[in-house]
Amino acid sequence: MRKGRQNDTSRVEADEEQFLHRLAERVRAARARRGMTRKNLSRDSDVSERYLAQLEGGEGNASVLVLRRIARAVGLPLESLLTEAPERSVDELLILESLKRLEPEDIAELRHYIDRRYAAKNRTDKAIHVSLVGLRGAGKSTLGRRLADRLGVPFVELNRLIEEEYGAPINEILELSGQSTYRRYERRALERVVNDYPAAIIGTGGGLVTEPSTLDYLLKHTLTVWLTASPEEHMRRVIEQGDMRPMADNTEAMDDLKRILKAREPYYRKAQLTLSTAGKTEDESLQDLLDLVTPQL
Q: How far is it, in rounded angstroms, from Cα 234 to Cα 254?
């Protein structure tokens, strides 16, 4: 049997059971903080006491709308009941309230300040690890290999490491174990490259940047370059590669690609460097990439 597939069903069931117990604890804690009896919460949320008792016992599998009513009744955002993360400290909650009053540009400036003030001492020398991000068809694999060859360092494609560790192609991983498992293996592969390779050019999957903790790790440990092109060029190159994931059998592939690019662009823009490969030959893009990266090394 291939690695990574064993006991998938039992693992999912155990994870779901743990989630229901965490949800139960959060509802009980929220009610206690408000000084509400179960009867009070039932009245304010219009959810029966019997159902609340089941939910607080880790047995109820409530709908999103029911949880929304409960969250409103205890004065919490819905996501605070559903989050997978540990419960936030009071200081974290107060910081989040402060952030709500800031403009987007102020939040970006604050993030940079936090990085400089608190995170710098924990960083490795990211100049020796260069990561390429962007949609499929931007040139990450092609330019990554050639850049690595010119710099005399290995080129490592995260998806290949993931396939080796899991024991199956990416599309099978997604089909059998889902997106969350893939993202977990992706983070592990990235950490492995940063820790095991003194220097490397890293080719990432197109969606890596949408996992905030992984994007944060990438930015802190690598010199990150966003390779971009026009949607039409992305599509043409993907077709030439014979790879239509995740747009297989979709007659509106171009619209889907544009939506994906629009959704991911704010994450890609966090890269330290940006290079457009639009309208350029492979040799021209490589030279531009060398000119962009070399001064940072």
A: 9
pLDDT tops 70 at residue 269: yes
pLDDT score for 246: 45
Closest CA to 159 of 200, 199, 194, 208: 208
Domain extent listing, the chain: 8-84, 113-296
Enclosing H/E stretch for 79: helix 78-82
> For all residues of the chain together, what is the average pLDDT?
84
Structure tokens at 14: 């155990």
Residue 274 contacts residue 228 (beta carbons within 8 Å): yes
End-to-end, the C-alpha distance of the chain in Å comes to: 44
pLDDT at 119: 55
Enumerate residues 6+ apart whose C-beta is below 8 A from 149: 155
8-84 domain in CATH 3.30.70.141?
no
Helices (H), 85-230: 90-99, 104-114, 140-151, 158-166, 170-196, 212-221
- Chain Cα centroid distance, residue 142: 24
The reported pLDDT for the residue numbered 217 is 92
Mean pLDDT lowest for which of 143-147, 209-213, 257-261? 257-261
Taking the alpha carbons of 154, 160, 161, 165 in that order, is the dihedral positive or negative? negative
**Assigned architecture for domain 113-296:** 3-Layer(aba) Sandwich (3.40)
Mean pLDDT for 166-192 is 89
Q: Mean pLDDT over residues 39-50, rounded? A: 91
